[in-house]
Amino acid sequence: MAPAVPELQVAINDFVLQLQRRQVEGSLDSAKLTVLLLRQVVSQHRASHSGQASALIEAVKNVGVRLIAASPIELAIGNIVRRVLHIIREEEVSVTNSTEAEVGAGFESDDNDNNDNDNDSPPGLSAALLAAANRSALRGPSLYNLLESGSMPSAAVVPLSSGGDSEDRSRSCEKNSKGWKLKHAVIEGINELLEDINNNHAQIAEQALEHIHQDEVILTLGHSRTLLQFLCEAKKKRSFQVFIAEGAPRYQGHTLAKELADLNLQTTLITDSAVFAMISRVDMVIIGAHAVMANGGVIAPTGLHMVALAARRHAVPFVVLAGMYKLCPLYPHNPYVLVNEMKSPSQILEFEDMSEYVEAALGGPAMHATNPTFDYIPPELVSLFITDMGGHNPSYIYRLVAEYYSPEDYSLE
Amino acid sequence: MNAYYETRAGHRGGPSGAVTSEWLAQAEAALVNPPSSLPRSSPSNGSPLFSVIEEFNLWRSKPELAEAVAAIKALTAVIQRSEATTMMGLEKELHNASEALKAWDETSISLSAGCDLFMRYVTRTSALEYEDIRAGKARLIERGERFGEISLKARKTIAMLGQEFVRDGSTILTHGFSRVVLSILKLAAANKKHFSVICTEGRPDSTGVEMAKEMVAIGVPVTLIIDSAVAYTMQSVDMLLMGADGVVESGGIINMIGTYQAAMVARSMNKPVYVAAESYKFARMYPLDQKDMSPSPRHVDFHVSLPAPVQVECSARDYTPPQFLTLLFTDLGVLTPSAVSDELIQLYV
């Protein structure tokens, strides 16, 4: 690991503790704080020798693994770490390419000196070809480059390492400027990412008018900031009605109902168990997600799988709002068990009322209370995703994953 | 019985079965020796069509070498022997050779998919402005010869991706015999996962029996069932895992007969259906129904003498539409069925 500045180390430890204590919760907050922390990691990173990008990747990964372990349920943390790694990899390629172009004339002679370094790059390959190879290496495997992939690792490594070697020997000052350029570009990329996260609610809300029509009846469950802003935006031009299932046992639906009533939207609060009774009158179900998995499955607050099934039964469109930072490149291998968090049972029952039964649990068979936080909704039940990049079909999610993440980062171990 | 299934059955008949170290060694040896150094029963007598099929059969006779790999090796040999002086000439020669190969066994999907993939690569490479035809040829030959390695790596990648889906305590239903499926299960067992496997019998050539034997060899509890017991056992199954002869543009698969009904039963009971297939099996086909494929009949023995008017349905494979599949494990990653057409479009458009 790179020599870390003490301040930075303190900041990392603080954030890890906050995550462990669940003082930071929710995908938006944890995503934002992760971006800020990783920006700090990158900007304070000092290692100006050759493999700068790889050292940077290593440093980010090390921090990332700790953050993910601190709160595995906040999938957004892992997503952000992978996004930052992807930014570094992308910038590395573009910086290398531009440096090669700049020193193109001198590079020729250097190349002759270092012929032994260029172990197996065929003579017919031009720099442009190598750059293309780099780019396709970033894009991950596809049928298109299947036949090339045999030599892909060497082709991708050769230009970088030989370029680094020659420059190390002859022009170390340029090397430094290249390292600085990379870091600068990466930080710029991270700032853009932060901006995207900050703007995602507004960008999603912009599309509201395309989806909500006059006099429609919308149903949702629980509370979501994305959804609130989405409905606000629609309210400006349309009048419609919203049913809100309260979302027991956290009752965040109550909060949303109050906020919408303040906007003069016609709001009806219902119990979770009344969803099926009301669904036949509903035109569209809109929800906010906690995370979107690579297969198009959704992790969302408990009760929403039931809502999705009710919607399917009556052929009501089930629309999921999710910022791109919620898009997780992993597949749910065992979603019903793995991706969940058990909260305190005190939300379900008062300790005073039930204490005698709960206490008995220590001795023998008695009542248990479980309070899971999330449901997994399989992709077949989702009609549409609305992200800050537009509307997408669940079967298209894998494409977005390929665009925003590098395949080598899927597993951070 | 057509040639395709004959050789497949022949491969399986061997004592060792799927991916063995022996086979790895053979495949690696095949990489070291260029095809030109192999003894050829009749050296090219001026007819390139004749030799390419022979070359293909020579490679195919290597046990456990996938059909598509053999096709690409044979086409590589064509380049090696070619006397064409222009890239266009070479392309034309290769085109004829690949058409001849495809015509030789029209029923094999992976053969035609392998040929198409390589032809596509040749067309793209020549477009990359190699000034010297020799350099272009050398590159193509090098690629072709490395393909064996690529296909080996593909199987390893799939095993890595697929074994994540094997959970402790789960029961997996397999249908027929597949080398990729076997490599997934082997890796999962090696990673100390506890699971059990239910194998269908795989009538009429009992490929499932081979699979069951392999499971015993790796110490995984296994149950063998008759093909008609799929629905009966589905209740206790956690996932259906199958290989494929070919993956078509719709994202559906063409595989041993019985795959369709197994997938249908699994889907109706909400069990995930996973397919493991190397990406060189992606074929440019779009079958709309079962009759939309060239038939590949084979002999079915009913063990009784049948009166003449009784007709016997003897198709060797069926088409499973994409809506019955959950995910595909390929060397390009875990894909949804709709991602398959995306990959094919990228390659061919």
Automatic annotation (TrEMBL), chain A:
Classification via SUPFAM superfamilies: NagB/RpiA/CoA transferase-like
Pfam families, per database record: IF-2B
Alphabetically ordered keywords of this record: Cytoplasm, Initiation factor, Protein biosynthesis
Entry superkingdom: Eukaryota
Cell compartments where the protein resides: Cytoplasm, Cytosol
Record InterPro entries: eIF2B_beta_subunit, IF-2B-related, IF_2B-like_C, NagB/RpiA_transferase-like
A cellular component term, taken from the record's GO annotations: eukaryotic translation initiation factor 2B complex
Listed GO MF terms: guanyl-nucleotide exchange factor activity; translation initiation factor activity
Acidic residues composition bias: residue spans: 108-119
Region called Disordered, residue ranges: 99-126
Keyword Cytoplasm: yes
Family note: Belongs to the eIF-2B alpha/beta/delta subunits family.
Assembly with partners or alone: Component of the translation initiation factor 2B (eIF2B) complex which is a heterodecamer of two sets of five different subunits: alpha, beta, gamma, delta and epsilon. Subunits alpha, beta and delta comprise a regulatory subcomplex and subunits epsilon and gamma comprise a catalytic subcomplex. Within the complex, the hexameric regulatory complex resides at the center, with the two heterodimeric catalytic subcomplexes bound on opposite sides.
Entry protein name: Translation initiation factor eIF2B subunit beta
UniProtKB/TrEMBL annotation, chain B:
Entry's Gene Ontology molecular function annotations: guanyl-nucleotide exchange factor activity; translation initiation factor activity
Name of the molecule in the record: Translation initiation factor eIF2B subunit alpha
Ranges annotated as spanning the membrane: none
A Gene Ontology term for the protein's cellular component: cytosol
Pfam families from the UniProt entry: IF-2B (PF01008)
Iron in keyword set: no
Keywords: Cytoplasm, Initiation factor, Protein biosynthesis
Family that this chain belongs to: Belongs to the eIF-2B alpha/beta/delta subunits family.
Subunit (UniProt): Component of the translation initiation factor 2B (eIF2B) complex which is a heterodecamer of two sets of five different subunits: alpha, beta, gamma, delta and epsilon. Subunits alpha, beta and delta comprise a regulatory subcomplex and subunits epsilon and gamma comprise a catalytic subcomplex. Within the complex, the hexameric regulatory complex resides at the center, with the two heterodimeric catalytic subcomplexes bound on opposite sides.
Signal peptide: none
Lineage: Eukaryota, Viridiplantae, Streptophyta, Embryophyta, Tracheophyta
Location (main, coarse): cytoplasm
Compartments where found: Cytoplasm, Cytosol
